[in-house]
Amino acid sequence: MADYTYDASRKDVDTADRSQWWQKGDAPKHESAFSAVRWIERHQAYKLEALRAFISLYGNRRVLGLDPGSYAGDDQKRRRRPRLNICKSATDTVTAKIAKERPRPRPVTDGGDYSLQRAAKQLGKFIDGVFYANKVYDQAPSVFRDGCIAAVGWMHGWGDRDAAEVKVERVFPGEMVWDDAEAYNGMPRTLYRHRYLPREVAAGRWHKKRLDVERAPAAKSGMVAIHRADMIEIVESWHLPSAPGADDGAYIACTPNATLESRKWKRGGFPFAMFFWSDPVMGLAGDGLVEQLAGIHVSLNKHIEAVESLLGLWGKVWVFVSGAANVSKQHLTNELDTIITYDGDKPPTISAPSVVPPDLRQQIALLLEEGYALAGISQMSARAQKPAGLNSGAALREHADIESDRFATTHQAYEQLFLDIAEIVIDEAEELYAGHIDVQARAPGRKFVESVKWGDVSLKRNQYELTMYPTSMLPKTPAGRFAMVQEWIQAGFVSREEGMRLMDMPDLDEAQSLWTAFMDDIDALIESFLHDAPLDGDEVDDLYDPPEAIQFLEWGVNRMKSAYLRGKHEGVPQERLSLLLRWMQEAQALATPPPQPMQPGAPPASPGGPAEMPQPPGPPAQMPPV
Is the pLDDT of residue 198 over 60? Predict the structure, then answer.
């Protein structure tokens, strides 16, 4: 086992100040923080070198460095690129298969009353709003791809006190620094983010230290200033408390010559959500997909290069002519219908030999198959093709299920990424609120955008659990979705109107909105009666909207009954339940025709219930073809 004890007599050991930055008290901490980062980057350079190599493999171009001044410095015209990039093909295919999902974290109360359930629903809308504002679902596929390339993909959540917002951003893996010795058993206690920022951006974020930012030295790539861009180095570091409630956690943001921000860090985790392609046996990071495919990628391209060399040397047409035939070489041209004269009874013969050995072709095919199998996909998936003979919706779903089983743990890791982001969003909102900053998020709804303030959520951590809202079990392709919805309608699981809702296809949106408008109308009333907050100065009764004869009252009454019974058991206040009862009573009265005046000599009407109400029109018996 390696010995991590420092020996000052060794020449290869840095003899600079080794005191930890979080132990400096009120003394300047920036020198210790930068010294620690540079020591780790120098003595554990293998991590950065491996990342550079994997990025080169994926991007099909040689990357010279990972800083702003060297990553794009290679002359691509002077280098031959690999013929077939299986690393990129497999990574992009897996990313398209898994990262297309949009998992939604949801807070769930354990037997909570109506007020807790309503607060949990507001918290879910708040999380949705932060995700929407930061385009989390647009950034997440890049984080997933980072995990395939660098073994770990990173997202950083932080509270912007000036904008009163929670920000979430993807982090380039090369910016994250940690000591492998400290991460021996998994997560380290100290994490660094070493990055380059434009000077004006850094001055805007740490505006209270604008003068220190302006005095920061320009970032350099090696010993050369980074082109014309005015970039500076920023190090942020988080040191976790030694135990819950301990006071030794700390955070710092600094330049090489000044501390921009320093404060206590009380949380038990870092403000980073991570996606791991594979779980490590030791340390923080395991293997990425590109690292797993690197050997196959190199071998495959060597074999392809051998094939090209053979074809270049021998892969041409050979013409054998007898010396006594007196055939002029000038007659051997590419023109059609050429007449060649020759002497003797032996005409020239043409030969196009196969110069590539069958074993070489088989080896290339085997390497391709093994590479895609290692990634858990087929070559047909990488080419966006379906196997021949799979035409029915059921067959396509079964094929997709078989391939998806390979990614079960990867799906779970991707969902965990969103749960971790949601936890960070909550932590940052709580911290801002403790500093008298009430974060407001705008959550997109089905019909409009709703603003939710953190101060209105008012849920304690022990009152709920964050869980993953299940993603749709419907297929993602139009043909597969159409087939499954048709099966559900035929089996009686859903009505035709509900089937139209489930189709959720842009081409059918207009027709769907008309066919299901009567359902959306009643559901909007129920949502308003049970959950909408009255306007300033209004009462709950002011939310009431009476039924109209044009509405489909019988269906609405049944829907209201279901909402009433569920709300009764969930502890919905009686004043809100009374709105449902009132609507049902008025709807039944409106649907019952008034008694007709009796004509002289006419027999009395037979007793009976109200006249049957008209049924809402549904879509045609056959769903429109996809």
Answer: yes
